[in-house]
Design a protein that fits this description.
- By secondary structure, this protein is mainly beta.
- It has helices at 2-8, 28-35, 41-45, 70-77, 92-98, 149-152, 240-244, 261-264, 273-285, 364-373, 379-382, 395-398, 441-444, 523-526, and strands at residues 10-13, 24-27, 105-120, 131-146, 165-187, 190-204, 208-222, 225-236, 248-252, 312-316, 325-336, 344-356, 359-361, 385-387, 413-418, 420-422, 425-440, 451-467, 477-478, 492-501, 506-515, 543-553, 558-565, 590-597.
Length: 600
């Protein structure tokens, strides 16, 4: 942008001050520079040698002198007039001056050596042979990259810079073993039972030692029913990008200051209001400042009312202090295949999963909120955000971390460091279910109506919680049955498919996709403002989509298919607006026909 403005703003050099040749077309910025290197503020701020990048440290209307930076001086010295009118009227030199090619090149390498030995011991007590496997693995991960800044040279690219990714690597040495132990077979205790276990030990050069294990039990008392249960642990070590990626420029837009008096006293903040008042008061008091964060006085003059007219600059990069994610999972499954109904099978799977030290990237808005939402200040979150009078481009280097709450001309946020952190934990609990049944009318009823098959599969989500408040491990958000942009998790969702095959060539299929209603706003958040919206608008309502399909095998080589999706044209609740949610079908009724041809 800076160079484009300079190149397009061209004039006639009547005295030849720039190149020594009178009458040449030159960039006006070059002529101004040649006329008077010590230009006044009026000249630099009114379209002359003006810094158009609006970099951090300069507010709108106070752009400063572009010659203060090396990139600005280069933009003046290298300027070539650009004719912006008419295709093909631009010189190659002018295009080269205003264009920039920016590339990111990254290299990832993995070296891996693994060996294992497995076999079976003899059958000790008639239940079957004991199975054993052992092994070891060595792995090395390496990465490095050339960032955007390598191609920018002496140019100032707004929001397009980035340093090189310095070479980074780690090694892991691992040992693993598994054992399968049959307990009994065809005994008075049942038809079959087996106990198995696994263990893996890993030594990482960057995060230390981790280990995981699992225990599994299979029990079949009779042929018709089986039970399976397991308890397993798992671990995910942070990758090299999450740990070591360099700081790159970024911005936070549409920022809402959690300490603003209006934010603290909004209806949606009732849960954290008292905490924010106390924490924001403490931050201000540390700088000998006083504000009416609670909005207790009639006058608004003593309120804290920051104003953000543009995005807040910050940096985004890796966090070398990340710890591995760890999880525990428990499952219990039942498989039912009765002899009296050989075409019926039912599977129920109960699961519990808990992930701790979850690695996730935190937005500046989230970090700012977490800083003051808890019963006390959250040091980890507060250390990533900085307040000062004017924003800066690189808060990691330019901001004193002690300036936690410095208020001058507005006291806005001046910068932040954005990256991944270890959240508290995630939990999920529910039941998955599947049932299949088929009827051949010729065998069952002696009717010549073909075969009917029905399959239903789905889930009952009991809970799905996110514990995102590092300062308060008991604080969580329940996402089961809560509407989420991108896709929600209804309490119950299942798909039922009924297929009728009157003969081997023709098949008709009816599929029903059902999901229970989800909360748009939870009732407890509306108590303080019950008249905000009609009560029925707090939930999405149940959603059912029906699809109908036909398949016909013309012969051994040609198959024709036709399908009507969402045959009843069901739509999401109209009060959801134009936001798309992947678990709803927003497209209405639609049709498709396909032809498959297999020549051989």
């Amino acid at each position: 942008m800076q160079r484009l403005v300079f190149a397009a703003d061209s004039v006639i050099d009547t005295l030849g001050l720039v190149n020594g040749r009178a009458g040449e077309v030159v960039c006006r910025v070059k002529l101004l520079n040649a006329q008077n290197p010590a230009l006044t503020n009026a000249q630099t701020g009114a379209g002359g040698i003006r810094d158009y990048s609006n970099r951090a440290g300069q507010t709108a209307g106070t752009y400063g002198d572009v010659r203060a930076r090396a990139e600005g001086r280069a933009a003046i010295n290298e300027c070539v007039p650009l004719n912006i009118f008419g295709k093909g009227n631009q010189s190659a030199e002018a295009l080269k001056y205003v264009d920039a090619s920016v590339n990111v090149r990254q290299r990832n390498e993995q070296q891996d050596a693994v060996g294992s030995l497995s076999g079976q011991f003899w059958d000790f007590w008639g239940a079957g042979p004991i199975g054993v496997a052992i092994g070891a693995e060595w792995r090395k991960e390496f990465t490095q990259g050339i960032g955007r800044s390598a191609d920018t040279g002496d140019r100032q690219l707004f929001l397009n810079t980035g340093p090189d990714f310095a070479p980074a690597s780690y090694e892991s040495k691992e040992f693993f073993s598994e054992v399968s132990l049959p307990l009994f077979r065809d005994s008075m205790l049942g038809e079959y039972a087996e106990l198995s276990g696994s263990y893996r030990y890993s030594d990482y050069s960057n995060v230390g030692n981790v280990d995981v294990y699992g225990v599994n039990l299979v029990y079949r008392p009779i042929r018709d029913i089986s039970f399976k249960t397991s308890f397993n642990t798992s671990v995910r070590v942070p990758n090299l990008g999450e740990l070591y990626s360099p700081y790159t420029q970024t911005f936070a837009n549409n920022f809402t200051d959690p300490c603003a008096t209006t934010s603290i006293n909004s209806a949606s903040n009732s849960e954290y209001r008292a905490n924010r008042i106390a924490n924001c008061t403490a931050l201000a008091a540390a700088k000998n400042l006083t504000y009416d964060f609670a909005g207790a006085t009639e006058s608004r003059d003593d309120d804290y009312t920051p104003l953000y007219t543009s995005g807040i600059p910050g940096v985004s990069g890796g966090n070398p202090f990340l710890q591995p994610e760890e999880s525990e999972s428990f499952t219990f499954s039942t498989v039912f295949q009765p002899r009296f109904a050989p075409r019926l099978s039912v599977v129920l799977d109960y699961y519990e999963i808990e992930i701790s030290n979850v690695i996730a990237s935190v937005t500046p808005q989230t970090a700012a909120n977490v800083c003051v939402n808890g019963p006390s200040l959250n040091a980890a979150a507060c250390s990533t955000i900085f307040r000062q009078n004017t924003p800066v481009a690189n808060p990691g280097n330019n901001i004193d971390r002690s300036e936690a709450f410095k208020v001058g001309s507005g006291g806005q946020f001046g910068g932040f460091i954005q990256g991944a952190i270890n959240y508290a934990k995630r939990t999920a609990r529910g039941v998955d279910f599947t049932a299949n049944y088929a009827i051949d009318t010729r065998e069952t009823f002696n009717w010549n109506l073909g075969t009917f098959t029905n399959s239903i599969q789905g889930s009952w989500l009991i809970e799905q919680k996110q514990f995102n408040n590092i300062a308060d491990p008991g604080d969580f958000t329940e996402y089961a049955s809560l509407l989420q942009t991108g896709g929600s998790f209804p309490r119950v969702r299942f798909a039922n498919t009924l297929t009728w095959m009157p003969n081997d060539a023709l098949a008709l299929t009816w599929t029903t996709d059902f999901q229970t209603s989800q909360d748009i706003y939870q009732y407890r958040t509306q108590v303080s403002n019950i008249d905000d919206r009609p009560i029925e608008y707090l939930r999405t309502g149940n959603f059912v989509r029906n699809d109908f399909g036909v398949r016909y095998n013309v012969n051994d080589t040609v198959t024709v298919r036709a399908k009507v999706t969402n045959i009843f044209a069901e739509e999401p609740a109209p009060w959801l607006g134009n936001t798309l949610y992947s678990n709803f079908d927003p497209y209405g009724r639609r049709f498709n026909v396909s032809l498959n041809y297999r020549p051989w």
